[in-house]
């Protein structure tokens, strides 16, 4: 194709998105659109998969059967969300094996929040309430993104996600109204998860490299700073309801702007964790790669069995 | 021996009376595993009463580049729609 033809196709393509038309897998798309979507959707899928690890830690230690079935169901949902997203990503012409390879070699990123440890039961509450809360704010606008398979996967994900946040909040509520030790545990979890949750919504607009193009493609519908503000404004009253204190001395209601002012985020910490120096980066990848490699013989055996059955069927047919 | 699990497309009937609808895809070694995985991945909240799985390589799809010759001929056949026909108002329901 000549450069001129590509330019004209690109123009038509941008116009389709501007008209709110969806792009489907076999449609022509600019290479950059394909690459950006593979990057974002796979990053999202990897986050769901790695996100199971910090919570998996507490399934066997859940304080009651009620909590255990809920946590188990939540972790299973995350596996499901990872799978919806991987298959959406594969429609862009990349194989599942390549996607795993990128995760396992560190070429692809996943959400940095999962590189923090889950040291007490209250962390299950804080993750559901704050981490899933921030994830929902990030994800809801993606239900109307331009790439059809991604938008459809996000609609399913968002439908299932609200149970995650509610179960987390319920855990916090129970602890916050429990013994002084339990309340301390809830406060401690909030202290540790608050700032990383704010970081989850991404670098500040001034630092964000992909925003403009992503807005055009509806991969992003609101800027990181707007999403962060929305998260803070909705979460502060919930903390008050719990009787817990958000660990930010500069947090206060700004009457004039009609939203909360908040303190400086430690972006050095954010970039350190992104670059692999968070408290659990190595452990997460070890566990993930270990599970994949440890399961190889099962996958091979299942395939060998399937091939054998197929052979048998064919021989019988002759 | 290294062979990856093939890709399957999943169709789910959400309740009797409705058609099966494409829900997504997944990897599985054979059709039985594809059905079981489809149940776990796509119907965790009673979303279906029946599942079809078909290996993706068996699906033949039209190419959007040919949409013109495939679908445009229908655009100028307005006489296939009831509103094309002029009837007096006295004919109330037809």
Tertiary shape of chain B: elongated
Look at the helices and sheets of chain A and give the structural class.
Answer: mainly alpha
- N-C termini distance of chain B: 67 Å
Unreliable stretches of chain B (pLDDT < 50, length at least 5) are none
Count of DSSP strands of chain B: 3
Strand fraction of chain A: under 5%
| Strand order, largest beta sheet of chain A | 1-2
What's the story with the biggest beta sheet of chain A?
A: 2 strands, antiparallel
Order of helices and strands of chain B: EEHEH
Task: Tell me the Rg of chain B in angstroms.
Answer: 21 Å
Integer average pLDDT of chain B: 94
Instruction: Work out the number of β strands of chain A.
Output: 2
Helix content of chain B: 10-25%
Please report the distance between the alpha carbons of the first and last residues of chain A.
Answer: 48 Å
Can you describe what's shown?
The complex is a heterodimer of chains A (318) and B (94). Helix content of chain A is 68%, strand content 2%. In chain A, a hairpin with a 4-residue loop joins strand 1 (252-254) and strand 2 (259-261). Chain A starts with a helix and ends with a helix. Chain A has helices at residues 3-18, 31-56, 65-90, 96-104, 122-139, 148-176, 180-199, 211-216, 224-242, 267-277, 281-294, 296-317, and strands at 252-254, 259-261. Chain B has two helices and three strands; from the N terminus they run E-E-H-E-H. Helix content of chain B is 18%, strand content 22%. Chain B is α+β, with helices and mostly antiparallel strands and 94 residues long. Chain B has helices at residues 31-42, 67-71; strands spanning 7-13, 20-27, 50-55. The mean pLDDT of chain B is 94. In chain B, a hairpin with a 6-residue loop joins strand 1 (7-13) and strand 2. The longest helix of chain B has 12 residues, at 31-42. The interface between A and B is medium-sized, with 29 and 21 residues.
């Amino acid at each position: 194709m000549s450069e001129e033809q590509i330019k004209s196709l690109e123009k038509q393509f941008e116009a389709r998105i501007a008209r709110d038309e969806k792009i489907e897998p076999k449609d022509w798309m600019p290479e950059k659109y394909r690459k950006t979507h593979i990057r974002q959707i796979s990053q999202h899928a990897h986050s769901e998969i790695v996100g199971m690890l910090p919570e998996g830690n507490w399934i066997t230690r859940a304080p009651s059967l009620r909590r255990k079935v809920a946590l188990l169901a939540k972790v299973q949902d995350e596996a499901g969300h990872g799978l919806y997203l991987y298959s959406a990503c594969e429609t862009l012409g990349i194989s599942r094996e390549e996607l795993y390879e990128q995760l396992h070699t560190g070429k692809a990123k996943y959400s940095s929040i999962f590189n923090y440890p889950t040291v007490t039961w209250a962390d299950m509450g804080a993750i559901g309430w704050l981490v899933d809360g921030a994830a929902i704010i990030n994800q809801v606008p993606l239900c109307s993104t331009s790439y059809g398979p991604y938008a459809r996967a996000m609609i399913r994900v968002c439908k299932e996600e609200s149970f995650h946040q509610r179960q987390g909040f319920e855990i916090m509520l129970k602890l916050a109204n429990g013994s002084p030790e339990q309340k301390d545990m809830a406060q401690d979890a909030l202290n540790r998860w608050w700032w990383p949750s704010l970081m989850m919504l991404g670098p500040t607009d001034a630092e964000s490299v992909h925003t403009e193009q992503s807005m055009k493609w509806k991969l992003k519908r609101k800027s990181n700073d707007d999403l962060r503000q929305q998260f803070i404004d909705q979460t502060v009253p919930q903390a008050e309801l719990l009787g817990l204190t958000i660990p930010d001395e500069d947090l206060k209601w700004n009457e004039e702007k009609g939203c909360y002012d908040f303190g400086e985020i430690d972006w050095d910490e954010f970039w350190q964790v992104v670059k692999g120096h968070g408290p659990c980066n190595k452990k997460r990848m070890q566990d993930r790669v270990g599970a994949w490699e440890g399961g190889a013989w099962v996958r091979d055996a299942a395939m060998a069995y399937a091939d054998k059955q197929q052979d048998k069927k064919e021989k019988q047919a002759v | 021996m290294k062979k990856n699990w093939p890709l399957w497309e999943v169709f789910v009937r959400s309740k009797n009376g409705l058609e099966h609808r494409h829900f997504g895809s997944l990897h599985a070694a054979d059709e039985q595993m594809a059905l079981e995985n489809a149940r776990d991945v796509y119907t965790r909240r009673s979303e279906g009463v029946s599942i079809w799985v078909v290996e993706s390589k068996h699906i033949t799809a039209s190419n959007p580049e040919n949409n013109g010759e495939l679908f445009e001929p229908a655009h100028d056949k307005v006489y296939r729609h009831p509103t094309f026909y002029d009837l007096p108002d006295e004919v109330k329901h037809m």
